[in-house]
Amino acid sequence: MLRSLPLRSAKSTVSDLNAFSRLHRRFTGCVVSHPLLFGLRGKMTFMAQQTSVLLHLCPSDDWSSAQADGELRPESLSSVGFIHLSAPEQVHLPANRIYSGRDDLVLLHIDPTHLDSPILWELGVATDPESMVFPHLYGPLPVAAVINVTSYLPDADGLFPTLGE
């Protein structure tokens, strides 16, 4: 699905995304998850992604705190405005880049239909496979959206395996 919305200003982007996400969910029952493509005559373009489960990697202490608070608000939400998520087949990339060797991590398995904030599929870092986009959650992660929690341990070399291996 491809949709375009006019932008009032760069500052209103997240507000526009929230409004679009709520409207789309009301009429289709689906949560919007999409990459942003800017520069198209002052419009944002969204493409729906079909992903039934998303993952967030975090230290187990952060997850314990989130359960007490009812939502997860990692530092990235304040510093860059979103929470880093991954599709199952790509979670090993940020795990190895950021958490190599750590054994205190959990994978939060998230049902995207239980999220109130928009998910934007955006480019990762230059060392990721070409054209790979990652889901970014532009708001807090409600504990109620987490459908499963599993540990994610590195191998003997300190590297995290691709899921399913």
Helix/strand-derived class? Answer: alpha+beta
> What is the molecular shape?
globular
Tell me the domain tally.
2
Largest sheet: 4 strands, mixed
% residues in beta strands: 25-35%
The main sheet orders its strands as 2-9-10-7
Assign the CATH superfamily of the largest domain: Protein of unknown function DUF952
| Alpha-carbon distance between the two ends | 32 Å
Secondary-structure element pattern, one letter each:
EHEEEEHEHEHEEEEE
- The average pLDDT score comes to 78
The number of distinct β-strands equals 12
Counting DSSP H or I runs of 4 or more residues, the number of helices is 4
Q: Unreliable runs, pLDDT <50, ≥5 residues?
A: 1-12, 22-48
CATH first level of the largest domain: which class?
A: Alpha Beta
Just name the CATH architecture of the largest domain.
Alpha-Beta Barrel
What is the CATH topology of the largest domain? ADP-ribosylation fold
Helix fraction bin = 10-25%
Structure, described:
- With 165 residues, the chain is α+β, with helices and mostly antiparallel strands.
- The chain has 2 domains: 2-47, no CATH class; 54-151, ADP-ribosylation fold.
- Helix content is 23%, strand content 31%.
- It has 4 helices and 12 strands; from the N terminus they run E-H-E-E-E-E-H-E-H-E-H-E-E-E-E-E.
- It has helices at 13-28, 60-69, 75-79, 92-98, and strands spanning 2-6, 33-35, 37-40, 43-47, 54-59, 71-72, 83-84, 105-110, 119-123, 133-137, 141-142, 146-151.
- The strands form 4 sheets. A 4-stranded mixed β-sheet has the order 2-9-10-7. A 3-stranded antiparallel β-sheet has the order 1-4-3, with no helix packed on it.
- Strand 3 and strand 4 (43-47) form a beta hairpin.
- The longest helix has 16 residues, at 13-28.
- The protein is globular and about 35 Å long.
- Residues 1-12 and 22-48 have low confidence and may be disordered.
